[in-house]
Specification:
38% of the residues lie in helices and 18% in strands. By secondary structure, it is α/β, with parallel strands linked by helices. Bound molecules: nicotinamide-adenine-dinucleotide and uridine-5'-diphosphate (UDP).
Amino acid sequence: MAIVNLVTGGAGFIGSHLCEALLAKGQEVLCLDNFFTGRKDNIAHMLQNPKFELVRHDVINPILLEVDRIYNLACPASPVHYQYNPVKTIKTNVMGALNMLGLAKRVKARVLQASTSEVYGDPQVHPQVESYWGNVNPIGPRSCYDEGKRVAEALFFDYYMQNKVDIRIVRIFNTYGPRMLVNDGRVVSNFIVQALRGEPITIYGDGAQTRSFCYVSDLVDALVRMMETDDFTGPVNLGNPGEFTIRQLAEMVIELTESKSRIEFKPLPPNDPVRRKPDISLAREKLGWEPTVPLRDGLKPTIAYFDELLRKG
Ligand code: NAD
Ligand code: UDP
């Protein structure tokens, strides 16, 4: 019997790539999504596959399905989208985690939580290691996401300790690639769309803040490895340790798109982390994983994807 996977948020950016990777392994996929930031276009090509099924559902409500593995990715990831309705974001993170843990407990499934580098907040330890407890503002504009994900991690460990649920936690750092939304609001998609349209590239603050960008295929490989690894709950950092300033990213995008766009500086949003870079020693050791796609190489197919999308209009 093929392994049956539930992927919540499966119609989203990372989720749709994950569904593809699981189907390619011959496994079954139940893709669950409420289509807040997910799109049918992301999964349309999988609908004819008899091993793929789509369920329209909101994770804040319980659901009973017979599955072996649960990848809990449901949650908007872009600050623009998760701040649109912060209360809903917290509900998605907390009630979504509770519902997926309850399901995992009932059907004895292994359950993986897509946590985030945001649990480190504006980090005072650099690069970030899993043992660092973070520096998160509990009442800022990013709190609905950061604290929601922190509660989800706590719930995962409580179900593990109390109910012996087979959990996995990954802390995902900034990930990019094809299938991000044009209006996603995150930096890679914003810069590429602006460059292709010849609009000003909007750098928030002075652009000296740093991020580490992981290409989506590398990330999905790590998610599957984590799910398949026995006797390791995590949390484990997943990201590309290459660290770039936002200004460097803007310059690289302008160069690769051969754009005439100029750079425009805008105010830095509150609580914007100053530096971010994963220490991935643990992922290397436990999963035998490290990213293979450098930023410049990953930007090319991402630019090609947005170029085609914008031409279609
Ligand atoms: P995304 O917004 O493209 O995907 C999220 C998906 O979840 C969408 O399809 C959306 O419709 C769905 N969703 C949202 N709320 C839901 C709800 N209540 N019920 C059911 N479905 C719901 O974002 P993404 O970049 O693919 O991120 C996927 C996961 O990875 C998220 O949990 C995010 O927090 C995490 N993550 C992503 C990044 C990144 O850089 N992309 C970094 C850290 C963590
Ligand atoms: N950013 C920017 N211009 C944009 C969008 C984002 O300069 O148009 C900056 C943002 O202030 C942050 C970094 O790029 O410092 C990464 O932002 P993103 O929203 O992609 O992710 P996060 O802040 O959650 O890491």
